[in-house]
Amino acid sequence: MLPLALSTCWNSYRHQDGYEMLQEIRQLGFPAVELGHAIRFSLWPGVLKAWEKDLIKINTLHNFCPVPTSVLRPNPNCYEFSDPRPEVRAIARKASEETIRQAARLGAKVVIFHLGRAGPSGITEKLDKLFQRGEFLSRRYTQLKVEAVKQRKKNFEIVWPRVRETLEPLVALAGELKVRLGFEIREVFEEFPTEEEMPIVLESFPPEVVGYWHDFGHSARKEFLGWHSHLETLQLRSPRILGCHIHDCRRPQEDHLALGHGEIEFPPLLPAFPQNAIAVLELSPGIPEEQVIASRHLWNSYVAASA
Q: What is the DSSP string of the chain?
């Protein structure tokens, strides 16, 4: 995999100057960065300054970046491609176009997309509560999952045409500007697409433009609740993998932890990744600096051992 980058989701909230934000990451020993979905416009001049001075390589942008001026608090799901309202989908498309253009300007390889949600609402919270009560795979737990899957199949037929229609011009723009789009697997069943739906989505777009973006913590959360096999999903998606978000996770749903502070066994999962996959450490803002550095060393040791 490519040298490990760090997402600005770890430090963007603490900075008023984008140059200082990226300088902090570079000083921690990271050669590259992902501009996360919380890059406010006030940080953008400093980001451009750092790019002009070649301070650090910008590998990826996470949609929406920079944050649309109409959004008061940064949120990657503020406008969804799955929204039933055409006017909201139009805003999502316009904001995404801006992210793609900025990625091309900065020489970034990939823009990471969240694609929306398709329900059924509340299923993850219900399963989590049963899990916490020791009722994992109980009759009630299983019934809820089966009902959710049945409803989701119906919802998919309604949501997918909306999402596809919104994505088509964005894929065309990305292809024109030589930027790839990574469709990220999400952390809860309600969001779109699920592991079963992802192949349908990916096969609808050219592989030279669109690929799969893996997230270790999200996949672990779903595995802990019994939705899929983390390893099997990675093996199936391997030909379309563009990169990954790296963070640890404790069951059932505590993620964005420093490596070694959760339950994910990373080494058996790494062979599924192509050599040119982009690796991004995506840690919670509360993670201490020493744990960020330790995570970098630990990840590099995993990659070296799998080579």
A: -PPPEEEGGGTGGG-S-HHHHHHHHHHTT-SEEEE-TT--GGGHHHHHHHHHTT-SEEEEEESSSSPPTT-SS--TTSS-TT-S-HHHHHHHHHHHHHHHHHHHHHT-SEEEE---B---TTHHHHHHHHHHTT-TT-HHHHHHHHHHHHHHHHHHHHHHHHHHHHHHHHHHHHHHHT-EEEEEPPSSTTBS--TTTHHHHHHTS-TTTEEEEEEHHHHHHHHHTTS--HHHHHHHHGGGEEEEEE-EEETTTEEEEPTTSSS---GGGGGGS-TT-EEEE---TTS-HHHHHHHHHHHHHHHHHH-
